[in-house]
Amino acid sequence: MSDKLPFEFFFSPEFGADPYAAYAGLRAEGPVHAIDFPPGASGFVVVDYEHARPALSDPRLSKNLASGPEWFREAVSQQNPVLSDNMLMSDPPDHTRLRKVVSKAFTPRRIEQLRPRVQAITDELIDAFEGDTVELIDAFAFPLPIIVICELLGVPDRDRADFRRWSAALVQPALDDEQVRARREQSDELRAYFTRLIAERRAAPSDDLVSVLVTSEELSEREVLSTLALLLIAGHETTVNLIGNGMLALLRNPDQLDLLRAKPELLPSAVEEFLRYDAPVERGTFRIAVEDMEIAGTPIPKGSFVHISIGAAGRDPMAFERAESLDIAREDNRHVSFGHGIHFCLGAPLARMEGQIAFGTLLARLGDIRLACPEEQLRWRFSGSIIRSLAALPITI
C-alpha cells in the first residue's frame, strides 16, 4: 500500500480532468490506499473492481450517519440537513422501510408509462436548438432529466430553475466557511419549498411522487423531506452526467459514434458502456466501518471512512477487457455505476430509458456532431465531488 494520500488528491483540477490516470497508478500499487479524507480522520479508498463490488454491499460498512463520529454528524447537519434522513443514509431496517415506500413510484410498469413523455420532452428540446452550435449540457442534458423528475414529483414548471440551483449547490464540495454557509442556505431553501409542497399534497393528494410519500404512514416528516431532496438530486444529476460524459466519449471515439448511428439496436449496450467508461458518479457516498475489518489484506479500523471509487472499478483491466477503450457493443458489462446490493440505484431503469432515448434521438436527428471547442478548453464541475460532470459541452451540429 502506498503512503497516505493527501486530502487534496481528489480536489485538484488535474484529477478532475482525468481521474483515471491517477487511479491506474494507484491500482498498480494495490487495491486499497490510506487517505487523509476527511482531513485528520482514518480514511481509505478502494480502486479495483474485485474489492469495490463486494464492499458496496458489505454490511460492516455502514451508511448510517449515527455510525460516524460526532464531528461528522454535526458537519452533515450543518451543511446538508435536508439530506440526512433518507434511504441512502441508512442501514436496515430503516433502509428497508424507506426503500419499500419509494419503490412504489418506480415500478417497471410506471417507468415504462413515462416513455412517450420522455420522448416528447427530448424532441421538444432538440426542436429548440438554434444555429449550428449548441451547448449540450445547458440546452439538453440538464433540462431533460430535470423536467422528468419534476413531473414525477409534481413540481410546477415555474420552479424548475430553482430545483436546478438547489441540486447543484448540494452536490458541490464545501471546502471553506463561505461554501458551507452557501450550501446551508440552499439546503434551507429546498427544505422550505418541500415543506410547503408537502402541506399542499396532504390537503389535496395528486397522482405524483410527493403524494405517494406524504400519504404513507411509514415515513416521518423529516424522512419525507430528505427523501424528496435525494430524489431530486439522484433523479437528474446522474442522468445529466450520463448524457454529457457519454456524448464526449462518442466525440472522442468517432468510430463508435458512427457505429451507434448505423446500428441503433446497440443503444442499450452503449448506455451501459457510457456508465462504465466515464461513470456519472465517480465515487460512492460515504461508508463507515462499524467494526475492525480488512479489505484486500489492508486493516480497516472501526470508525474509518471507506471510499469506493466507482470510476476506478469501471476501468479495472482485471475486470474488463480493454478497459481503457470505449466499446458500445461490449457484452456482459458488469459495471457498478448504479451501485450494488441493497443500495443499488432505485432509479436505474428510468436513467437507462432516458439515456437510450436521449442518445438515440440526438444521433437520429442531428447531422455531423463535432466538438465545437478545443478539447483542452473543456472543464469539469466540482473537483472532489462524488459527481463527475462537465461544466459545458459545446457541439457543432
Automatic annotation (TrEMBL):
Family per record: Belongs to the cytochrome P450 family.
Name used for this protein in its record: Cytochrome P450
The organism's taxonomic lineage, starting at the top: Bacteria, Bacillati, Actinomycetota, Actinomycetes, Streptosporangiales
Signal sequence annotation: none
Keywords of this entry: Heme, Iron, Metal-binding, Monooxygenase, Oxidoreductase
Entry keyword annotation includes Heme: yes
Pfam families: p450 (PF00067)
InterPro entries, sorted: Cyt_P450, Cyt_P450_B, Cyt_P450_CS, Cyt_P450_sf
